[in-house]
């Protein structure tokens, strides 16, 4: 089978969408699938091209058997709604043009932003091929909840566009049961929706000793480290976490934040305003370095703000942390909470509930017996969500879609 995949995030970018797509595509190539990915020059999250790349109209490279086509896009930092929409639209248009010249049996386009999937839909219509909408997050509902777009007419337009794309997709692959339920409740046929969750790359993320060099450099010797590694966005509620940290009395507990995003500046400013001494902020690190920083932490912090939409999501940090035996302090409701509690891999608190957060922190940091039990739970969770197994599940769905289209 020849497969064309549209995504605006791909390695060497190291965010969750890039990792999921790359790891799936790599596994599919190993199974004999001919995969072409159309993406843009790596620039997330600062809107600046990575070293060794240029923002050219068209360039190609091979990456682990995957043919990668990089097209021009308007680049901007991961903040500011209008500029980011220009980024999305420019990529979608360039990807559509490039895709016209790629021979394929099936097209996959990934969300959360809708313009990539709009490009996939348009390509499928022109090329008369089936296309699969990979739904990783609800958009525009997520940005509406955060007030990033306040104009009602624009939100209404995007919502109509969203529903139209769901209906026109040959098939939909979501990452959670909650997302499937949301679509079904809005009139999308449940028979055309499959679930392939996120997972962990067990070859990349595995238990390892704490990186002694980093511990010394960051002065984290003899500290119990709570770590957050990822996007500092509106969805993550990090200002709530910072506000709660001022009430932590245990001097051995230290918080490490690695990454950037729309709320990074505000989060750092709040920590400085409160005079916190038990917090360290670092810039994003390359994907190849992420596991070194995960190795430093004792507990992975996984928070989201308290919204109905976020209760339908499963942060990918859960799986990477579990693979490295790092119990979770989880501030997410819904399916994510169910998974962590089912496998006994962490302690959950109600999102943005300071009392529950502090109680969960005390529980996870004060008992060696509890901590070791949670580590054992991490082992079970990681094994159940091995990315290789999930890639096989998704390619089986894609092959079925292709066969039914050709029948």
Topology:
Elements (H helix, E strand, L loop, with lengths): L1 E5 L9 H15 L3 E7 L17 E6 L2 E6 L9 H19 L6 E5 L3 H14 L3 E5 L5 H5 L6 H17 L2 E4 L2 H9 L7 E3 L16 H6 L6 E6 L8 H8 L7 E6 L5 H10 L5 E4 L4 H10 L2 E5 L13 H7 L4 E4 L3 H9 L2 E3 L5 H13 L1 H17 L2 H20 L1
Describe this structure in words.
- The chain has two domains: 219 residues, 3-Layer(aba) Sandwich (Rossmann fold), CATH 3.40.50.2000; 173 residues, Rossmann fold, CATH 3.40.50.
- The strands form two sheets. It has an eight-stranded mixed beta sheet, sandwiched between helices. Strands 11-10-9-12-13-14 form a six-stranded parallel beta sheet, with helices on both faces.
- A hairpin with a 2-residue loop joins strand 3 and strand 4.
- Helix content is 44%, strand content 17%.
- The relative contact order is 0.11.
- It contains 15 helices and 14 strands.
- The chain has 407 residues and is an alpha/beta fold.
- Helix 1 packs across helix 15, helix 3 packs across helix 5 and helix 8 packs parallel to helix 9.
- The protein is globular and about 60 Å long.
Number of folding domains? Answer: 2
State the separation between the terminal residues, measured CA to CA: 15 Å
Biggest sheet architecture: 8 strands, mixed
CATH topology of the largest domain: Rossmann fold
Question: Which structural class fits the helix and strand makeup?
Answer: alpha/beta
The CATH architecture assignment of the largest domain turns out to be 3-Layer(aba) Sandwich
Mean pLDDT: 93
Radius of gyration, whole Å: 21 Å
Identify the strand order in the major beta sheet: 3-4-2-1-5-6-7-8
Number of continuous helical runs: 15
